Amino acid sequence: MTTQEHQATHKPRIALYGGAFDPVHRAHLEVARAARRQASLDRVAFIPAAQSPLKAHSPVASDAARLKMLELALAGEAGFVIDDSELKRGGVSYTVDTVQAFKARMPDADLYWIIGGDQLEQLDRWHAIRELAQAVTFLVLARPGYQLSAPGVSGLKYETIDAPLMEESSTSIRERIVNGESVIGLLPQSVEAFIREEGLYT
């Protein structure tokens, strides 16, 4: 097969990585790198949510600040892009709406959605999960010693990704900043500098 023939038959493998990213931190990047490597992805799209349907509170930082932190964090990362469609759409961010928009733009792509093992267990609570399960393959972060439990959703497809433990969460990092504790090593340096310059989370 020639290079041109391979390119003609290759279906882009794109993973969608949703979250508040409030702030984006090093573990987010490590997860995306692991997923890209292990699932042979062409691209990982980071999708900051306007408002998660399963979270009671809105993001702390503004949409503009969260986008800027993502831009800083992803600079120089091959295959990583930002998609701000949920922010533009506003309101509660339903995954199925985002996936449908991606499928309309890239009908030939194989779409994946990155989630944690704890989210896999809750998929039956997700809006329009049966429709979503037909449209994407979930990439589930498998943590050492953690037994994955998938709900009985018709058509559900998932693959496991060995990823580093996300011991620090965005919530705990915000708490550290509020308490004046060090966040060195938890955030990309550019993101840490931006948070300090803008006085975020204080």
UniProtKB/TrEMBL annotation:
> Which InterPro entries does the entry mention?
Cyt_trans-like (IPR004821), NadD/NMNAT (IPR005248), Rossmann-like_a/b/a_fold (IPR014729)
Q: What biological-process GO terms show up in the record?
A: NAD+ biosynthetic process
Q: What is its EC number?
A: 2.7.7.18
Statement: the UniProt record of this protein carries the keyword Nucleotide-binding: yes
Known NCBIfam families for this protein? cyt_tran_rel, nicotinate (nicotinamide) nucleotide adenylyltransferase, PRK00071.1-3
Into which family does the record put it?
Answer: Belongs to the NadD family.
Recorded protein name is Probable nicotinate-nucleotide adenylyltransferase
Gene from which this protein is expressed: nadD
